[in-house]
Amino acid sequence: MKLEGSFPVSAPRSAVWEAIRDPGLMARCVPGCSMAEQIDETSYRAMVTVKFGPITARFNLVVEIEEEIAPELVRSRTRGEEGTRASTVSSTNILTLSEPEPGITQVDWSTDFTISGRLGKYGLGLMKKKVESLSTEFVQTFAAKLEEGTEAERGTA
Amino acid sequence: MSFVVSPTSVDEAIAFLVDNPEARPMSGGASLVAMKNARLIEASHFVSLARIDSLRGIRRNADGSVTIGGMVPHRDTAACDLLDGDLRMIRQAAGQIANRVVRNMGTIGGAVANADPAADYLPVLVCADAQVEITGPGGKRLLPIRDYLVDWYETALEPAEIVTGIALPPAGSGPSVYRKLARTPGDFATVSVACARDGDGVRVAVGACGPAPLRAPEAERALAGQLDDPAAVAAFCEALVALADPVDDVRGSAEYRLTLIPRMVAAAIRDVTGGL
After folding, report:
1. How many CB atoms lie within 10 A of CB A76?
2. Residue B151 contacts A, CB cutoff 8 Å
3. Which residue of B has its CA nearest to A53?
4. A133: nearest CA partner in chain B
5. CA distance B39 to chain A (A)
């Protein structure tokens, strides 16, 4: 299933770039993410809990950066599975940053993901709604954190 | 491995849920046991509510309002004479849930707690402006069902809270109807419509077309007094279509559902305005 979206952030592109490369900050923005750490130069490990009605799924995810052009593009691949029950997810993701005007960064993302196992029993239609609502939540937290940071910088300048 | 415990009071059930965060309340088990067997869910314990007497029965309160106990099976709701007039649609919905076995097992509290967007109860309860009676460690609270339904399969229920009943306003005299389109009798609805006559207007809720039933109160007010005007009815239907956010699934595409809404809503309005 393919999904895409875009959102503006009131922060310069360099600041947004640093933020998306900061696993600690990303962990605080991704809904349900309890842990994120860098394994090596190009890969990260993350633990994400997704609640879907009566189902709670905890995913161990590995994110591999396949291509990186600072400060405008990241191409990555995510693979993961649930600890106890067999659901697996995998996705390929593209994220691009542009700065249409100084201090405003446009974030465009797209992902192509598959899910199988017990969560796959829910239709993709419903899964898509869930991903959409999680991404909205992420965007709000992420934008708020960055804008906060940018304002703090301005305050001290 | 999970264990079933059978407390005999709501307080006992809640205390157990508080002490065992991985336990789940279980009412009739019609959906929950199937989900467990499909390994969709897990729990340390299933806290069966079947032996709690206070959750049984449908009663009319002094002010005319009606309370359906959380453990009332669909079979009893479908046969209840207290649900008449503009509450009659609730009986019709109960009688169309799944099959006889499920109607004997499944309960209104369980169905509302599970909050399947295509469940038969949700549109009729939204149409009736029902309130969900929730009991938890903090005591009892009443929440309008429209506030209770938060998102796809997500409700306002907090950990260790149980749906102990459904509170309905006093029955109005106007007719009401539940219309369900399903691939086969007993399936979940592809689209469902609950419609109740309210004075010279109607209240309408559409099920299976979004995370919660659709309701358009402003459009309902605009339609009042014009139920016999096809253009006004068409505009009303469009207002509901605009609120819809259906998904593609085995029961039909999102687009098909959007096509069904105006037809089914218009038909339901005709059902409750027979004399016009």
Report:
1. 19
2. yes
3. B153
4. B151
5. 7
Instruction: Report the candidate in A34, A42, A38 with the shortest Cα–Cα distance to residue A60.
Output: A34
B 88-147 residues with CB < 8 A to A: 114-115
Instruction: Choose from B153, B161, B209, B257 for mutation: most chain A CBs within 10 A.
Output: B153
Is residue A109 pLDDT above 80, yes or no? yes
Residue B177 corresponds to which tokens in the numbers above?
Answer: 């109807």
- Beta bridge pairs of residue B181: B191
Nearest to A125 among B40, B153, B249 (CB): B249
- List, as own/partner pairs, every contact residues B8-15 make where C-beta atoms lie below 8 angstroms and the sequence separation is at least 24, other chains included: B8/B51, B8/B52, B8/B53, B9/B52, B9/B54, B10/B52, B10/B54, B10/B55, B10/B135, B10/B162, B10/B164, B13/B47, B13/B49, B13/B52, B13/B162, B14/B135, B14/B136, B14/B137, B14/B160, B14/B161, B14/B162
Q: What is the pLDDT of residues B106-124, one digit of tens each?
A: 999 999 999 999 999 999 9
At A22, is the secondary structure helix, strand, or coil? Answer: coil
Which residue in chain A is spatially nearest to B32 when comparing CA positions? A54
Give the nearest chain B residue to A119 (CA atoms).
Answer: B40
Q: Which is nearest to B165 in space by CA: B28, B23, B54, B31?
A: B54
Overall pTM > 0.90? no
Domains and CATH numbers, chain A: 2-21+67-156 (3.30.530.20)
Look up the ipTM and state it: 0.70
**What's the confidence (pLDDT) of residue B163?**
98
Going by pLDDT thresholds of 50, 70 and 90, the confidence category of residue B42 is confident
> Which residues of chain A are within 8 Å of residue B32 when distances are taken between CB atoms?
54
Give the rounded distance of the alpha carbon of B268 from its chain centre.
Answer: 18
